[in-house]
Design brief:
Layout: E1 8-14, E2 20-26, E3 48-53, E4 58-64, E5 74-81, E6 84-88, H1 91-97, E7 110-114
Parallel strand pairs: 1-7
Antiparallel strand pairs: 1-4, 2-3, 2-5, 5-6
């Protein structure tokens, strides 16, 4: 049950023509259900994950109840596409990857789109 508003999803969407690889350190707000594409390379560090997204695939990474900046699903995020790397080394840099409206505010549902 939600007090006022239903939560918005946080998504990574691959709109490119290539498969992308995503490496991340998740926060306590990272959440996904029955996702078989996620692997944990180091079983001692369960917050370190990797996954691949084929063209036009997406991954739901969490539910934002109030504010994306407070409930961001990643501590760090690296996206690799054709030997090009986008790296967000902290929460502020991750936050900057999410799509924004004309006023610079993250749009909901909250998405990181790779083109």
């Amino acid at each position: 049950m939600y007090a006022c508003n239903k939560p918005d999803n946080a998504l990574i969407i691959n709109k490119s023509k290539e498969t992308i690889k995503v490496k991340a350190i998740t926060s306590s707000f990272f959440y996904t259900i029955n996702e078989t594409r996620i692997i944990t390379p180091d079983t001692n560090k369960t917050d370190h994950i990797e996954f691949h997204l084929k063209p036009n695939e997406s991954l739901n990474c969490g539910h934002i109840n109030k504010n994306l900046a407070d409930e961001i699903p990643f501590e760090k995020l690296t996206i690799i596409k054709n030997n090009k790397t986008i790296e967000a080394k902290n929460k502020d840099e991750v936050l900057n990857l999410f799509e924004k409206n004309t006023f610079g505010i993250a749009k909901s549902p909250y998405t990181i789109v790779i083109k």
